[in-house]
Amino acid sequence: MPEAPLVSTNPLLALAAHAATVQPPRHAVRRAMVDWFACLVPGARRAPGTLMAAALAGERGAGRARCYVDGELSGIRHAALLNAVASHTVEFDDIHRDSGHHPGSVTIAAALAAAQHHGASLETLHRAITAGYEVACRIGMAVTPSHYKNWHTTGTVGTMGAAAAVAVILGCEEEKIAHAIALSATMAGGLQQAFRGDGMSKPLHPGHAAEAGTLAALSAAAGMTGALDVLHGPVGFAAATSDSTGRWDLALAGLDTPVIGQITFKNHGCCGHIFPALDAVTTLRAAYGFGAEDVKRIHIAGYSATKDVTDRPDARTEQECRFSAQYCMGALLVLGGVRLAAFEPANLVNPAIRAVMPRVSVSLSPELASAYPRRRAAQVEVELNDGRVLTHHQPTRKGDPDMPLSDEELSAKFRELAVPVLGEDAAETLLARLWVGEELPE
Question: Which of 35, 162, 287, 329 is surrounded by the fewest CB atoms within 10 Å?
Fold first, then answer.
């Protein structure tokens, strides 16, 4: 006799039921995969992924999942871990604005590793990725913004997204997907302090999330059970990591519109909380034609994370500079953009960029803070040496759902990041496969 369906107001069960049936908006999924590979390719040639691949070489295990860091075939967990680390390394990967989560780095890494290993169809992979985005981003919405005070959302809710995605690849139905999510929740982690200073910890967050979520899904598929009230219980995930037991009404609203169609694709290679200010100054430069040497001061008024995360006037290392509004503004003015080159060793000590940094200040705007996280805005004031004071309100970011990158712009981003590593022919072949191919990427 078949088991009764899981019907409950329990948010975990509601999300599991949704993950089991959600249909992929295929073009939106393809956009996410183009962006993921764009970030993966350069990240796969850099630390910490290269260091971890060497350290874990003896634990690779047999498998059919591609580890893009070294090109070898691996077991699912090994590939999910290293590919997720690599895809987050250059800070160009996608964002779900309303949850503050980088879903692609975790979900696609885990789902693709499982799909390659099990020989799943591209349609199944698309469905799994969509399910993973749904679960992780919606749990993130339930705990945002208070969760982000101490926790890195990608490392926490990403674990549950990976679990759901891999469970779909494994052919799990609703009940086992629920247990995969439940098991993964107790392995979720990732501290804000890990990327407020120097070090290589941040890419490890999606790496651990992808691997732990994969472990949870494999375990659930084998019959292991989890605590199904772990998300909303009195001492569950939401209560432990936010200021409530979760805003589940918000998280579960609009299930007929998958979040993967509402993703931000980064237009700058740095922390997304700096983007509105960079966009504002780009707009002012286009209108008034000033350069770094013309600027007396720049003031950025932003929301809470603008001040808390990116006000780093003394940033020195690559990691610090990716999260410094002062450094990134200097790079924009001196180099013309905040791309990978901005964080090469020569530019980290570039005297022209360093000269701009003391002229940039950051403050909290209560008005802009009240609209966060659904609005990521900035109010920027630029005073020029000739006495002119220019102002611009940037209500959103280029790349956000209400100001999206076009397919052509996304392809241009892919080429910019992938061609120097793969070469033009290989990059174009991969790009075409991601946009129109019907087989799994190899």
Answer: 287
